[in-house]
Structures are given as structure tokens and as C-alpha cells.
Queue: 3 jobs
Job 1
Amino acid sequence: MPTATTTTTSPASVISLKASPSPSSSSAATTLRSLYPRAARAFLQRDVALTHSLLTSAFSLLGPPASVVSVNDALASQRRKWDILRITFETTLYSSPPSAQDPDHLPPALRANLMLSPEPLLATLHNRSLQLFTPADSPQKPSSAFLPSQILVTLVLASLKLDCTDVGRSMIEDWLAKHGQEEIADDPKGHAKVLELYCLHVLPRLRDWDYAEDFLTYERELPPDVRQVCVSSCLF
């Protein structure tokens, strides 16, 4: 997760996109690829208004996948990249807000975030990501079954950053409970990364050593070397 502190703003409106009202996935992906470096640079340069403007423009082109069979559509990688940037940006702004005279110059959505306590903010970010990745034709409500591991890791790191470890734990446990419920491509490396974060960072912060040790006793999807590191961490 990037760690720049977003503390300054500059005047900017939503960036105008030269695209048709209903751009094709390929043209939307091209536009999104061209916008992303600008958004990442604006974030690292602490330009709050421009970062927010570019994010708003990007998500005007990004919606949920149309169906379960199209989860990995032409916009899948862009959906992940932009959501990671959005979560990181908003979490960073929340943890290091502008000085007292600056909040009135923030876009309304960002001002609203600053008025929330950490737990509701994280719940809002989590629910928004669930809505973004759950297919539009899914009969169930937005579900962690469709949440990519990279997004989950970003959300959990945000919960650790805001000292809401219990929230991060709940996110992971909900994701693990729903893992494999939908017929989508498996991601063994991503799954291992989530388990590593859970065992090495989340449970230790909660001092739940016994549960971590029990969990590792029955967990069989971690690579042996990672498992050994986790077990050693629990023991010492």
C-alpha cells in the first residue's frame, strides 16, 4: 500500500473524458490505462483534488462485471488497480487529514469520510468494494466470494493502519468462509497472501496466539515455507 500523506489540495473538477456515452470495454480499458499513471502521480504528490477527480472519472467507466462468467472481463485488472488506489488514497487522507483551514476545500465525499469514525469508514470501503466486484446478475447481495485477494489485503492493511484490527479479522474470516462458493478462477498465491497476513499480522496484533496455532494446525493451503514462518511466529 502506498504511504504518501495526502495533505494538500489544488482546484480541479472532474476530468473530462473524450469517450462515447457508453464506451466499449476495450476503449474504456485504454482510457483507464492512460489515466492511471496521472492518478498515481497525483496521489504521491499529495494533490488531493486532482487524485479525487481522476478517481471519479475512472469509476464513471468502471462498474461490476456483467455476470459470473465475465468476472475476468477486459476491465478486471483495471477494476482491481483503481480500487486499490481509491482505498489507499481515502485511508491515507483519513489517517493524515488536511490542516484545520483546509477541509472546506475538500470534495463533499471526502469531507463526509472524515466525519466517520474508523469502523464505519472501513465498513463503507469494504461494502463499496463488494458491490464493485459482485457481478451485476448475481442473485445474492454483494459477496466476499467475488472479492479479489488483492482488494481484501488492501482493505485489511487499511484496518491495521487505522488500528481496527478486529475489523480486518472479520473481513478475512468472511472471505475465507465464502472462498470457493462461486465458480471463479482460483488464486492460490493470493489465498496464501491472505492467510499469511491473517496469521502473521492480524491474529498477533490481537494476541490470539492459541487460535493462530490451532488455525495453522488444520490449514493446508499455505506453502510449507510460509507455514513454518507462521508457526514459528506463533511459538515465539
Job 2
Amino acid sequence: MASLLTPRGPLTRSALGDSFTNTTETPVCLFNYVSNIKNHEQERDIIHTTWPELKREGKNQILLFAGAFNPPHQGHLATIRYFAERRQELGIVAMFLFTDPDETVRSKDKKFGEIIIPNELRNLMLSRVPELSQLIADQWLHLIVGGLGDTSNFLGGDKLSCRSAPHRDLNNWSPVDSFLITNARRPVNFYDSGQDLKPHDIPGCTKWERRLPRDNLEEEQERSVGMLWLCKALTIPGWPSIQFRATQSSASTGISSTRIRKIMWEAPDEELYDGLKDQVVSAELLVEWLQASRERKRVEDETVL
């Protein structure tokens, strides 16, 4: 689902904008909102943001939310909202949202994956959501672009399993201090929701240990974000800790990227908006791009004939 980072590894240092050199060819930067606004009357509503300010004392926990976002949909929005509403309880100073480059999305074998929404448009769709625009203005949410390397192996709730050990392909990101896993947005196969049972042990990890609340504040935090279980991933360099926040239910939206892409692929032009408006964010931008892409394809086909 997500990982908590501290600025010690080469790529996390680069993402935080310090003097360390990125190991990829494309420099990391913030998404340029103003240059992507067609109607310049809207520029006065845009607040120019900078990299987050980190605390000099204590740990700075950064939440990285990386993925294809092809397209950005209401499930993604619900995930961002969940962590934004609980950022104090989880101690998250900032969320970095990284949409995979076009070539990375193109390399994934997905049903109806022939449609690749340009990376710039995916970021623009996210930045146009009023709720996210406010988080950006508050300098908590940051849309980043550039070379973050391969994030497909990043450890998340969909990759942590009671059937296999955590992978060790995290050298570009190491050292990672800890991973945050929660079943609040998506079920995990190592915990049975609805029961106050211990999570199933993960191969290659130490046994789960329950972290009990130490005071009233932590009891309130537990009610908000779930019981805290801890283990160590022994198969990953540095033995990072895995923090699992166990909630008694998973609030999945039921949104399916595959079903959305099927609509994008099959729906007639006049039905695209109605089919997508309740599924994706900034549906009008996506529909405009889809219709323009289809028109270009029709012109190209006629030219060939």
C-alpha cells in the first residue's frame, strides 16, 4: 500500500531535494501545475508549492504512493483521503505521489492496457481535484515526476503475503527504515478482518508482536487507524520494520481499473463521460483526451487508406 521513508537512501534523498545525486537519468522534480493550465485565468487560484519542510529533530516520515494511475480513479482518491485525514495519528509529514512514466505503464501486461494516458495528463487530472489541490496548497501532498527508478517492487499490502518472504529488490531505495501496511483500503491475506486475532506470520520475517497503547492518546490513535503489529523483514537489507495497522473492516470502493479501461476502450464517444464520471477523477479531462486521440486515429487510418 505505502511505505514510510526517511531521507537516507540515494533515491529518497533525491526525492527530498537535497544535494545528493539521483541514480536515474531524469531528475526528480515537482509537477509544474501552472505550465499545464490552458485557461490562464485559473493561475491566480494556483498556489506554488515547494518541497516539504522537514523537522530538524525527530524522524520525518514520508509516505510514498506510487503506481500507474492509468487512469487516476476514485479508489486512489479515497486512499489519499484516508491517509490525509489520519496524518497526525500516523505521524506522516508529507505524501509523495508518483505516477509511473509512460514506458513503465506500457511495459505492464494489463487487460485493455493498450490505452496509455500520458504521464503529464495523469498528474494534471490529480491536481485538478479540489480536495487534492488543497492538500497540495497545504504542502502535504506533492506530485513528483522524473526518475525514481523502478517502484514496481516496492513493498505494499498487495505484495506482502503469508505464502512467500518479502523480496529483497530494494537496493535503490535502501536503507528504508520501515514499511507501513494497512488493510483499511484493501484486504491482506495474512490477517482475518473482523476478528481480534494475531496476523499470520510472514516467511522471512520475525513473528508479529503486538504494540499495546501506552496512554489515552495512543488508545485514540488505535481506534482511528487500527491495532499496531510489528515485525522485522529479515530478507531485506537493513532488516526494516513492518508496521501493520489492523482494522476490522476494509473500506474498498470496489473501483476496478480494468473495468474503467474497458469503458475507455469500448464506449462510444457520446457515452464516455457518463460511463467514467463516477469512476475516475477529472473525468472531463480524460474524455477530452480520449475523444481527441480517437479522432487522430481515425484521420491516420483514413490517410493510410
Job 3
Amino acid sequence: MFSGLHENVMPNDGELANQALHEESNYRFPSFSASDAVTLGLSIRKRFRASSRHSKGKGLVISIQTIAGHTLFSCTVGDLGHSSGIGDVSLDSWTCLEGMISAVRRTGHSSYYVEKGMSAMGKTPKQLGLPGDIPRIQGGAFPIWLENAPCCPIAVAGCYSGSSQDDHNLVSTTVRDYLNKILRNSAGGDTTGPSMSNPSMPIPNVPPRTESDWLPEPSEFTSRRAETYDRHEVETEFSH
């Protein structure tokens, strides 16, 4: 009689963190250049401008940086105080985004994983060894990993509009679809796309973890690598 009540149960924070961890492991670049950063950043901008959130007045700030902090791409979608109110951004948008990117640099994980992990464990940023000057930790900053460099991410792609899950999904799906485009170009012999140091190199597969061990203890938080996860939706701008 009540079997249908559990069909649309939302995932808990532990499950969301585990999913983000799998995404990080599966989305690995064969190489990543400044040109790739610009293409990726413009794709994030294009998708957001086509979204209902933008049409309803939301703005966005985007930044792609190397792990050392060098800016490769930076963009604002919207105007502060625009008379129409379309695409509005707040005064602290860039501050929030920089804090999210700092969390990725410190942990090697997406800010969405860190946010949901803290919530699931009931711990504070201080208890996990994160800097006290980070104003807010929420989804939107995603690590850029290379296939043959498992020691640390090479860059961070991030965006901020105020919605943790939406911002995370925007960045992670754009990264995923850009990687799919690279693979298609490589399979088709297209040499005009992003360079690939080893197109045949497989993405490392590690058995998925259970919910009980998806997040490391604070002493391990800065060194743990992500696991694997497979997502299949491909956005239209990467279909050619």
C-alpha cells in the first residue's frame, strides 16, 4: 500500500558526497592547456546563459585557475545592479568563489564533496583542517585531474551563483562533456582538438566505496584520491 512512498526519496548528504567523489575519479584529462581552460569556461558560460536560472535573474561568476593560483579564465555573467535585474551578481560572489577554490586546493576534492561530507559527518571546516578564512564552502568548484598524474589536481574550475547543487552540476557536466568531445576527436583522428598525450590510456578503475568510508578522517583529508563513477548524458554543444 505504501510502497510508492519511497520511490522519490532524495539522496542523503553521504550519498551525494559519494557521487561527487566518483565524478572526480572518472573525469580525468589526458592533458590540460590554457586553450582548454578558455573553451571549458566559455562552455560553462554558454550553458548558464541558456538556463532558466539566468532568465529568472540569476548571475554567475566563473574562474578556472591552476593549482598554484594562476588565472586561466575568468568571467562574470550578469551585472551588479543592472536596471532589468537580469543576471544580477552580488558583491561577495568572487569572495565566495575564491573560498570554494581554496577548499579544492587544500583537499584535492570538489567543494560539493567537502560540503556534503562535512554535513554527513557533522564536522566543521576547522575540524577538517580547512583554513578559517574561507567564507563559505558549497558546491561549484571542481578539480581538474590528469590521467597520468594522480598526486594532485592540475587546476580548478569553479563557478558561483548561490546554488550549491546547481553550480556543482553545471561545472561537473560541462567537464564531463568536454572530455567526451576530446575522446570523439581522438577516435576520429581529429588533430584540431585538444592535444592528448596518450589517447589510449584508460581511466583508472577503483571499486566503489560504501557510504561508511566515503570520507576520510581529518588526518587523511588532504591526500585522499577520488573513486570512479560513470555518467552518460551528453550536452548538445559537444555533439559536433
